[in-house]
Specification:
By secondary structure, the protein is an alpha+beta fold. The strands form 3 sheets. Strands 4-3-5-6 form a 4-stranded mixed sheet. Strand 7 and strand 8 form a beta hairpin. Helix 3 runs antiparallel to helix 17.
């Protein structure tokens, strides 16, 4: 076997002792084609190990983070679920079908338009995303999640931003990886099926807990594609930042004063930030975005380079996510960062987090099927091997714990707390089970459960003898089928990569302003159908230096003037705003709707405004007429704190035909 640094294979015939005894000339280096093959093999080993391999623990951890992102993003959209996706929202299905927002746009959401249908779809999405999170039926769930996420993002492109594209790409590229091989329900169930322990000796034997295949790195072209994707996002974002504000270090100042984007907390404190810190923050963003691609490309000190990349990505995007309402952008990039951990990181984490003083002896009733099942689960969760198991006949509490040093026996909540503390990351929550109220609740539940014969209720039995170790070795036909599927997977990655590269050449300013790149329809479909775009020029060439939002002055049937989007009187003075307090969905919707290119969707906005009393449940909120304005100003210059040049542009007027002839009161 060749080494990771490309050295030739070493066997007994080339060992020093053999060389000394070998005749002259026997140790000559390979020549000709053999020499070329030897070097190519070494280069391939470096490329494979550095750029095309991923630790399966990394994939499992990334899957948990991505699943959590999916669930949280779904909850983020929930308050506006019907506003965005239903026929009573801002873009009804019939209008979306009649006037597609982009060429080739595709979404499953067009098949769901009423409230009951959409809430049923919401439940399906939540279940799918939870399956990805816990790793149950992972391959199927992840592919479905990729389709659902792209459909959810593609249903209303009026709220799409770069974060939605990054989210699509994250879920799509990882769908090609075995994300459920570690830290998943699938892996746990597989381990339980492979070995069925019957006694304490079997429980204490830790061999074959994890299938050997799952302990090896996963090698695939898509691992390199993900590295290339992350590097491209940062590299092109850097080289497109050519404006004056980036060169003189004032860019962060202007972004902090965009009220439609910043959070209320940032709006409250931005005026107190010393101006001298702004250039350092700006240059930190530029330097970080420039360094990350280098860290991903270098084959030297790979572990430390990847750690630096992870640290910079998390610092940048946690900062962005806490400062601005950018939708899923910041958190999707943090999700990408979790794919950069190496085997060295996992080995270091195991050495650092394993604490011998947390070792415990778990006592269980050897005649109880329920107790045995619980111990089998604990064995598989105990990745630090801090738990040992001992059968204790007639144990009334089902499970107990002994501390090796003092032999003190703990039961119920105290036992649970010590067991959890021995598991990976367990100490972060184990203390909860020692709190007075919660510990009493756990004790009460424990007593209720152990008062019944749980084994008999669920039909759990203790095997008379340990079952044979089940192997997952495929048949010769199965191996051929597996290789065929893997080949198809790699070919699919190549096709998607071709579509991504072509889309990048078409979209990126540094390319399309110099040369016109063809955009063949098959490759265009790959990118446009599921919105796998590649235009990376966020805040380029300068950051946003102006601010704006839509303000509606609508007359109600009882004579009041309100803005139906806020439920309050219209506020036109943006210069005194301290964050507009809109979420990303409404902020981007307003920003897109003021553009003439989207005027075809303004009638749908009117209909949405007319339905305001349906949302409030108050007949007196019926909208009679109104005017819609785009209100804008310029952000304060560097060193100043007051926005200026306030302008109010009227977009359109409206009059509710349903209220004509109705009596109106008030002024």
């Amino acid at each position: 076997m060749s080494s990771a640094i490309g050295q030739p294979p070493v066997d007994e015939s080339t060992a020093p002792e053999a060389l000394e005894a070998a005749p002259e000339g026997a140790a000559e280096a390979p020549r000709g084609l053999a020499w070329l093959s030897w070097h190519l093999q070494g280069y391939w080993t470096i490329i494979r190990d550095v750029y095309l391999s991923a630790d399966r623990r990394t994939l499992g951890f990334a899957r948990i983070m991505i699943g959590f992102l999916m669930v949280m993003d779904l909850f983020r959209r929930t308050p506006d679920w019907l506003h965005m996706y239903s026929d009573k929202g801002v873009l009804p299905t019939h209008l979306n079908l009649f006037r597609p927002q982009a060429w080739g746009a595709f979404t499953l959401f067009n098949a769901f338009s009423t409230a009951p249908e959409l809430w049923a779809l919401w439940v399906v999405l939540l279940v799918t995303f939870l399956c990805v999170l816990v790793g149950y039926k992972t391959r199927i769930a992840h592919v479905l999640a990729a389709i659902f996420v792209a459909s959810m993002n593609g249903r209303i492109l009026l709220i799409e931003n770069g974060g939605y594209v990054v989210y699509n790409l994250l879920v799509m590229w990882t769908a090609f990886l075995p994300m459920g091989d570690r830290f998943s329900v699938d892996a746990l169930l597989d381990s339980m099926r492979r070995r069925k322990e019957a006694n304490a000796d079997e429980l204490n034997d830790r061999k074959d807990v994890v299938e050997p295949r799952r302990l090896t790195p996963h090698v695939s072209l898509v691992v390199g594609v993900i590295l290339l994707q992350i590097a491209a996002i940062y590299y092109f974002n850097v080289i497109h930042k050519t404006g004056t504000a980036w060169r003189n270090g004032t860019a962060v100042h202007y972004v902090l004063w965009v009220d439609r984007m910043v959070t209320p907390i940032v709006a409250a404190v931005r005026g107190y930030i010393p101006p001298r810190l702004i250039p350092y923050a700006t240059w930190f963003v530029l330097i970080s975005e420039a360094v990350i691609p280098i860290c991903l490309a270098t084959p030297l000190a790979r572990s430390w380079a990847r750690r630096l990349a992870v640290a910079l990505m998390c610092i940048l995007h946690i900062g962005f996510g806490a400062t601005f309402v950018l939708g899923p952008f910041a958190w999707a990039m943090c999700g990408f960062s979790t794919l950069l951990f190496t085997s060295d990181d996992w080995d270091l984490a195991a050495r650092t987090m394993r604490r011998a003083h947390r070792a415990r002896v778990v006592l269980f009733d050897g005649a109880s099927g329920a107790s045995l099942l619980l111990c089998r689960l604990l064995k598989r969760l105990d990745r630090y091997e801090l738990l040992t198991f001992r059968a204790e006949p007639g144990l009334t509490r089902g499970i107990a714990v002994e501390r090796p040093n003092d032999k003190a026996r703990l039961e119920r909540s105290a036992a649970l707390a010590d067991i959890v503390a021995a598991l990976p990351l367990g100490p972060t929550i184990a203390w909860l089970f020692r709190l007075p109220l919660l510990s009493h609740l756990v004790d009460a539940i424990w007593s209720v459960i152990t008062a019944r014969d749980v084994s008999r209720i669920f039909g759990l039995r203790v095997p008379h003898a340990p079952g044979p170790l089940a192997t997952n070795e495929p048949s010769p036909l199965g191996r051929k089928a597996g290789r065929f599927v893997a080949t198809l997977r790699e070919l699919a990655v190549v096709v998607m990569l071709a579509g991504a590269v072509n889309q990048a050449l078409v979209e990126l300013w540094v390319v399309n302003r110099r040369v016109k790149v063809p955009h063949p329809e098959p490759l265009r479909i790959l990118a446009q159908k599921m919105r796998y775009l590649q235009g990376w020029f966020m805040f380029s060439p300068n950051p946003v230096m102006d601010d704006g939002t839509i303000v509606v002055a609508a007359k109600t049937i009882d004579g009041r003037t309100i803005d139906p989007f806020t439920g309050k009187p219209p506020e036109f003075d943006l210069t005194k705003a301290q964050s507009l307090r809109y979420n990303q969905i409404w902020s981007d919707y307003f920003n897109r709707m003021h553009l003439p290119a989207n005027s075809a969707y303004r009638d749908a906005m009117k209909e949405f405004l007319y339905r305001y009393p349906e949302r409030t449940g108050r007949p007196e909120d019926t909208i009679v007429s109104g005017e819609v304005y785009w209100v804008k100003d310029l952000n304060p210059p560097f060193g100043k704190k007051e926005s200026y040049k306030l302008e109010k542009d009227k977009l359109f007027s409206f009059e509710n035909p349903a209220t004509r002839g109705q009596a109106r009161s008030g002024g």
